[in-house]
């Protein structure tokens, strides 16, 4: 492994995680204004698909659609589940996707997690538990969110696998198309209005360009460089960035326990990155 390319991959994936984190508070502002989450997802991924179509064309239908169907069902399950449970429970259960990545990586890529991966995963899960106050319970909302976490884990691994087969830019359009198409159908069936404010469009465009187009492109480009397992640990920084920007934008305050959790997540990411780079 070329160390320069490896650390470049770490930084690009961290930037993607940064963008995912900052979208949480700004999307919350929009959704709290009674905008349907299905309508918002439709707008966001429609913009993203339009941008990548202009830049790179339609790309590969087969692999892009597979990723898109998985991502679309993930978003639907997460959104539906969030309406039936608390935000903290949803955040904790969604973050459990890091547990499923090693399983799918072993099943599909035939790659066993290393000892330091296992240690880092354990530390990361403790960090997530502290960051979210460990609010767990199990009902329909939690079940749907768990389905989302499982599919997110599968999506991470398949991105690594498919990006070794097809050029990364060719896996974007159909992936985004499937998400907005499925969410759009659900929104129409539910009778949700697509008449939204300019602010909603602004947030959707920002999220489309940063968290969606750049974020998924970075995954496709660099997960195969740093590995699925290391990528999953990097992605545990998403709730850390989300909490930081929730404080800056919404005034939400972290407790000392949550800060300890955030530091554990940061530590697990640094540990596995440095250990793998030294191999």
Could you walk me through the main structural features you see in this protein, from its secondary elements to its overall organization?
- The protein has one domain.
- Helices cover 80% and strands 0% of the residues.
- It is built from twelve helices and no strands.
- It has helices at 3-31, 37-56, 61-82, 87-95, 97-109, 115-131, 140-162, 173-189, 198-226, 228-235, 238-250, 256-277.
- The termini are close together.
Question: Features of this protein?
Answer:
globular, 279 residues, 80% helix, mainly alpha
Summarize the structure.
This protein has 279 residues and is mostly helical. It has twelve helices and no strands.
| Mean of residue pLDDT values | 84
How many individual β-strands? 0
The SSE string, one letter per element, is HHHHHHHHHHHH
The biggest beta sheet reads:
none
The tally of domains stands at 1
Please report which band the strand proportion falls in: under 5%, 5-15%, 15-25%, 25-35%, 35-45% or over 45%. under 5%
Radius of gyration: 18 Å
Topology:
Blueprint lengths: L2 H29 L5 H20 L4 H22 L4 H9 L1 H13 L5 H17 L8 H23 L10 H17 L8 H29 L1 H8 L2 H13 L5 H22 L2
Helix pairs in contact: 1-9, 1-11, 2-8, 2-9, 3-7, 3-8, 4-7, 5-7, 5-10, 6-12, 7-9, 9-10
């Amino acid at each position: 492994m070329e160390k320069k390319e490896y650390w470049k991959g770490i930084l690009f994936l961290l930037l993607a995680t940064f963008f995912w984190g900052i979208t949480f508070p700004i999307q919350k502002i929009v959704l709290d204004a009674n905008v349907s989450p299905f309508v918002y997802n439709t707008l966001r991924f429609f913009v993203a698909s339009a941008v990548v179509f202009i830049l790179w064309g339609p790309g590969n239908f087969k692999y892009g659609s597979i990723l898109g169907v998985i991502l679309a069902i993930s978003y639907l399950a997460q959104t539906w589940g969030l309406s039936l449970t608390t935000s903290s429970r949803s955040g904790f259960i969604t973050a459990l996707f890091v547990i499923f990545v090693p399983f799918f990586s072993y099943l599909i890529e035939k790659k066993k997690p290393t000892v330091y991966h296992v240690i880092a995963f354990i530390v990361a899960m403790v960090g997530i538990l502290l960051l979210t106050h460990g609010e767990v319970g199990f009902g329909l909302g939690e079940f749907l969110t768990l389905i989302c976490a499982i599919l997110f884990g599968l999506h991470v691994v398949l991105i690594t696998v498919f990006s070794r087969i097809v050029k990364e830019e060719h896996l974007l359009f159909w992936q985004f198309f499937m998400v907005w198409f499925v969410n759009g159908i659900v929104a129409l069936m539910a009778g949700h209005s697509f008449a939204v404010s300019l602010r909603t469009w602004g947030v959707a465009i920002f999220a489309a360009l940063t968290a969606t187009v750049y974020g998924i492109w970075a995954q496709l480009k660099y997960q195969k460089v740093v590995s699925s397992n290391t990528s999953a640990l990097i992605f545990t920084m998403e709730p850390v960035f989300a909490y930081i920007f929730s404080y800056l934008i919404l005034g939400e305050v972290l407790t000392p326990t949550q800060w300890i959790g955030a530091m554990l997540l940061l530590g697990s990411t640094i540990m596995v990155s440095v250990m793998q780079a030294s191999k």
